[in-house]
From TrEMBL:
It comes from Sphingobacterium puteale. This is 3-methyl-2-oxobutanoate dehydrogenase (2-methylpropanoyl-transferring). One of its GO terms (biological process) is branched-chain amino acid catabolic process. It is an enzyme of class 1 (oxidoreductase). Its cofactor is thiamine diphosphate.
Length: 805
């Protein structure tokens, strides 16, 4: 199989001449050498202070070269921060860009993966243009943006691979030809041996075997997880041994398992050729356990592996270093002479050094230019401290923007209120640079492209005299059906979503109408449900990933937070995954499924739109907006609202609720009450009782928390009422505190108040089971009445005497 395995063009060939064979071998050896010198030099750059931190892929070179040989245009990588050799060998990136990322060069041309936002060895390909439009994924080799979360790269593998199956099976998707060549793509995943102890690894292995996902999963096994050996990490000390129960057998699903030594170049090439062919042609997942790998420099630049490896182990790693073993093989096979190999070694070392110097020079040029501009402006100011700041910047051996702008800001502090010569010029320059630095370091939390939800036109719901009164769940059901018939890209999946149409019947009957490839069940695996949505979304589909209850979201929060929420930001707008996480929560009696942990969501999911509709009609309008846009979101439906009666809009699949805009539910002049979700109805109940007490509240429904009230409706209301109460059922200091901060600070609501603003939330614990427990644990209409009345009493005690004194 060597002749086919060595084919660089992914085409089967029968024979190779010796010269052709030698050229391939020599080129692979050169790539391995260059990658090794990148690791060695990169570590030095960290230790000398030029870079902050380094993590490298030395010791894994040959396995990654073998993998690159079978990696085709259109394929996807979901990888691990040891994969630099694969990235070089596949052409996804190069040495110059590697060092640019190591130095955190904030230029997307120098570091296309992240524009300096991610540490080195975190690679991605750009799949969007500057306007957020999709590029053609079939004409390039694709790498999903890496994350450092241990094992986190596993979850999205399911969606990346499932997309190939769907594109292969569903001819209605053929028009999306820039995402797939009729499903002829394989997803390659890599993971370290220690990370296979993570639960998400087993989730994905199980799910890939169930659904026969076309993927090749490589385990780079160097025997350790930092200082912890395999014997402590893994039963039997061998991950492929304990996975044997997943081995595919005749007439069963499952996975094909391969085991190969990481220094065996020929064996690696043959193994990857076989596994990739099985995954691509038969859609059977394959796992390649690459053993006997080394890690010559230890885990990272922050420590030394000599602290925990024995002398015997260190000697073995020297003897079985994969590059040394490849050199022995080349020599013994007569492929190249010692002189040729020595020359290759010198050339590789020189090339890496040249590219490192070029990357450093380009990085420093950017910093030096801004430093020089600052020095020139500071020198024009007749001030002793400004002169000192200029000289300090001139003396910098290695400029840093932190130092440049730190000095400039100190001088602006010093010159405040003074009409000093040169001050205004420095201030003007600083303001211009602030905009540039905002783009460099703080932009692209969302893609903000042409298909942003903010560009979706607002379409009001239409009702007439004959509009039906139905259960809220029926509004959702009809909304989903109309949209799924309109857009073939839409998919929905999760526990109990398919056959029974979800536990609250939002998808009832839709699997029968639309097919099991559009609406389907999954196992109980929240991490991989969300990951599946991420992978499907970046490949052009429109997934709804359902998490059955809001408290189950915690099981998948690492994938949602570390991967999905940060994707646009960490790629500088180069990638997006417009998955919608659908869940339900808020009001319900009992410790479980009754939570409203919105502060968890607000703290961990910046980068998602957070929608909190008060009823199913509002939820439908939000879905209609999100289906027509391209940014990720989470929609939290009211668990106790599915069987409440609502009027069915005539345009149930078309009307839209704008994302980021609050709604005034009730006019009033005495106090503004802001709420959302299930407590919004509680506030409405309280309003009736308050009117009997002569108090007329204005009710604002936030509708979405991220973003919050873009039109500043809350501040507008405060201009009239001058009093504020925020009501929700999160823990004290949770989402209500977030809303308060938004209104007081971002909307300048503080200046509109004539009394202390208040929040009313649930107790710090979860509610006990039963209606009584709910009443004493979460805000009731009585609590709202009394809190509003207390605010009015404080403002006018004569008109509103105390209730409880």
């Amino acid at each position: 199989m060597l002749d086919t395995a060595f084919d660089q063009n992914n085409e089967s060939i029968s024979t190779l001449s010796f010269d052709e064979f030698k050229k391939i071998i020599v080129n692979d050896y050169r790539t391995a050498l260059e990658s090794r010198y990148v690791s060695l030099l990169g570590r030095k750059e960290v230790l000398t202070g030029k870079a902050k931190f380094g993590i490298f892929g030395d010791g894994k070179e040959l396995a990654q070269i073998a993998m690159a040989k079978v990696f085709r245009n259109g394929d996807w990588r979901s990888g691990y921060y040891r994969d630099q050799t694969f990235i070089f060998a596949s052409g996804i990136s190069d040495v110059y860009r590697f060092f640019s990322q190591l130095y955190a060069h904030p230029d997307v041309e120098a570091d296309p993966s992240s524009a300096g936002r991610q540490m080195n060895c975190h690679f991605s390909t750009r799949v969007l243009d500057d306007q957020g439009n999709w590029l053609d994924q079939t004409v390039q080799k694709n790498s999903f943006s890496d994350i450092s979360t241990t094992g986190g790269q596993m979850a999205r593998v399911l969606g990346l691979g499932l997309a190939s199956k769907l594109y292969k099976q569903n001819r209605n998707l053929d028009y999306l030809s820039y995402f797939s060549n009729k499903g002829n793509e394989v997803t390659f995943c890599t993971i370290g041996n220690a990370a296979t102890s993570e639960g998400v690894f087993f989730e994905v292995i199980n799910a890939a075997g169930v659904h026969q996902i076309p993927t090749v999963i490589s385990i780079w096994d160097d025997g350790y997880g930092i200082s912890v050996s395999n014997e402590i990490q893994t039963t039997k000390g061998d991950i492929s041994e304990i996975l044997k129960g997943f081995q595919k057998e005749e007439l069963t699903n499952g996975i094909e398992i391969f085991k190969v030594r990481g220094w065996d170049y020929a064996g690696l090439c043959e193994t990857y050729e076989q596994a990739a062919s099985i995954a691509r042609e038969k859609h059977i997942p394959c796992l390649i356990h690459v053993t006997e790998l080394t890690q010559p420099q230890g885990h990272s630049s922050s420590g030394s592996h000599e602290r925990y490896k024995s002398q015997e182990r260190l000697q073995w790693e020297t003897d079985f270093d994969c590059i040394a073993k490849m050199k022995e093989w080349i020599q013994s096979s007569g492929i190249a002479t010692d002189e040729e190999l020595d020359q290759l070694d010198r050339e590789a070392k020189d090339f890496v050094r040249q590219e490192q110097k070029r990357a450093w020079a380009d990085y420093i040029r950017t910093l030096t230019l801004e430093a020089k501009e600052a020095i020139d402006l500071l020198a024009r100011i007749p001030n002793e401290k400004a002169d000192f700041a200029a000289k300090k910047l001139q003396s910098m051996v290695e400029p840093s923007l932190k130092e440049v702008y730190g000095q400039v800001r100190k001088i602006l502090h010093e010159l405040k209120g003074k009409q000093t010569e040169g001050r205004q010029e420095l201030l003007n320059w600083y303001k211009v640079k602030q905009e540039i630095n905002e783009k460099r370091y703080n932009s692209k939390l969302f893609t903000d492209g042409v298909d942003s939800p903010f560009n979706v036109p607002a379409v009001p719901a239409i009702y007439n005299e004959d509009s039906k009164i139905v259960d809220g769940r029926e509004v959702l059901n009809l909304c989903f059906e109309e949209n799924f018939r309109r857009d073939e890209r839409l998919l929905a999946f999760g526990e109990d979503v398919g056959k029974i149409g979800d536990v609250n019947q939002g998808f009832a009957g839709l699997q029968d109408k639309l097919g099991a490839h559009r609406v389907f069940d999954t196992g109980i695996r929240e991490n991989s449900i969300i990951g599946k949505g991420i992978g499907l979304a970046i490949r052009g589909l429109k997934p709804i990933a359902e998490i059955q209850y809001l408290d189950y979201l915690i099981y998948g929060i690492t994938v949602a937070s570390d991967d999905l929420a940060s994707l646009s930001y960490r790629t500088f707008g180069g990638q997006k995954a417009p998955v919608i996480i659908r869940t339900r929560g808020h009001r319900l009696e009992g410790v479980w499924h009754s939570g409203s942990p919105m502060s968890v969501i607000l703290g961990s999911l910046r980068g998602l739109h957070v929608c909190v509709p008060r009823n199913m009609t509002q939820a439908a309008g939000m879905y209609n907006t999100l289906f027509r846009s391209d940014e990720p979101a989470i929609v939290v439906e009211c668990l106790n609202g599915y069987r409440l009666k609502e009027r069915l809009p005539e345009n149930v699949g078309e009307f839209t609720v704008p994302i980021g805009y609050a709604e005034r539910i009730k006019e009033g002049q005495d106090i503004t009450v802001v709420s959302y979700g299930s407590t919004l109805r509680v506030v409405e109940e309280a309003a009736v009782e308050l009117e009997r007490l002569g108090i007329f509240i204005e009710i604002i429904d936030a509708q979405t928390l991220l973003p919050f009230d873009k039109a500043q409706l809350c501040a507008e209301s405060l201009k009239k009422t001058n009093k504020l109460l925020v009501v929700d059922e999160d823990v004290p200091g949770g989402a209500a505190a977030f809303i308060l901060q938004e209104i007081l600070e971002n909307q300048n609501g503080y200046y509109l108040l004539d009394s202390q603003p208040r929040t009313l939330s649930a107790k710090a614990h979860r509610p006990p089971y039963g209606s009584d427990g709910d009443y004493f644990s979460k805000p009731s209409s009585d609590d709202v009445v009394e809190t509003v009345y207390a605010i009015m009493h404080e403002a006018n005690p004569e008109k509103y005497p105390s209730m409880f004194e």
